[in-house]
Amino acid sequence: MRSTTTRGVLWEVIAPVLRWPMRSPFRFFSVVVGIVFVIWLIAQWSDAPDAEPASQPERGSVSAEQSPEATGSPAPVPDPVPLATKFVTAWARPDLTTDEWWAGINAARPDESLAQALGTTDPATVPATKVVGAAKVLEQNDGEARVEVTTDGPKVIVYLTLVDNVWYVANILPGG
Questions:
Q1: Which residues pair with 157 in a beta bridge?
Q2: What are the boundaries of each domain within the chain?
Q3: Burial (CB count <10 Å: 0-12, 13-18, 19+), residue 110
Q4: Under a CB-based contact definition with an 8 Å cutoff, are residues 116 and 105 in contact?
Q5: How far apart are CA 65 and CA 54, in angstroms?
Q6: At what angle do helices 81-91 and 98-107 cross, to 10 degrees?
Q7: Residue 163 has what DSSP assignment?
Q8: pLDDT tens readout for residues 106-141
Q9: For 40-56, what is each residue's pLDDT tens digit?
Q10: Residues 83-114 pLDDT 10s
Q11: What distance in Å separates the CA atoms of residue 57 and residue 144, rounded to the nearest whole number?
Q12: What residues form DSSP beta bridges with 99?
């Protein structure tokens, strides 16, 4: 006599479906290939370029309704002067050890090529010790800026690039 409980009825329905692929190697491999194909399709669909992950805005950040992209106006470009001044202030420290000097340089966001170029710099050879004047923007366009920073040594021209609305120091030209 068969059980009439829900569990018994459910097993009577599922058992033949589970046993069917096991009746021959061809069926088994066909089912495995089918499952792999379905998983691949789901992965392709979820990796589509138009699919964007849902994210919660951080506390205090601009919501999607308030963002410049939602209103159609571009985000305001940040001022490059503070970063240029921060970088030159970190650069003009010949009194520091190399490790301390590098910590200051890296905090001022140099791009990778500038970091490589400064890799052999001995801080003791830097011809300035401090920033003495206000920096001024010499040139600025959509993605680049050139800022002059006055030091107690030579004036320093700082070249910056804008990536995702964040300035990075691309190059410096002491005595510029």
A1: 148, 173
A2: 6-46, 81-174
A3: buried
A4: no
A5: 15
A6: 180
A7: E
A8: 888 888 888 888 888 888 999 999 999 899 999 999
A9: 888 888 765 554 444 44
A10: 999 999 999 999 999 889 988 888 888 888 88
A11: 29
A12: none
Measured between alpha carbons, how far is 92 from 172 in angstroms, rounded to an integer? 12
Within a 10 A sphere around the Cβ of 70, how many other Cβ atoms?
Answer: 11
- Evaluate if residue 158 carries a pLDDT over 60: yes
Please give the backbone phi and psi of residue 60, each rounded to the nearest 5 degrees, phi first. Answer: 85, -5
Residues counted in the chain? 176
Q: Is the pLDDT confidence value at 66 over 60? A: no
- CATH fold for domain 81-174: Nuclear Transport Factor 2; Chain: A, (3.10.450)
CA distances 115 to 97, 122, 142, 153, 171, Å, are 17, 13, 23, 22, 9
Three-state helix/strand/coil letters over 113-155? HHHHHHHHCCHHHCCCCCECCCCEEEEECCCEEEEEECECCCC
The whole-angstrom separation of Cα 89 and Cα 105 is 9
Is the full-model pTM beyond 0.90? no
| Sheet of strand 156-163, all strands in order from the earlier edge strand to the far edge | 136-140, 144-149, 156-163, 166-174
Phi–psi pair at 146, nearest 5 degrees: -125, 120
> In sequence order, what are the residues at sequence separation of 6 or more whose Cβ sits closer than 8 angstroms to the Cβ of residue 9?
3
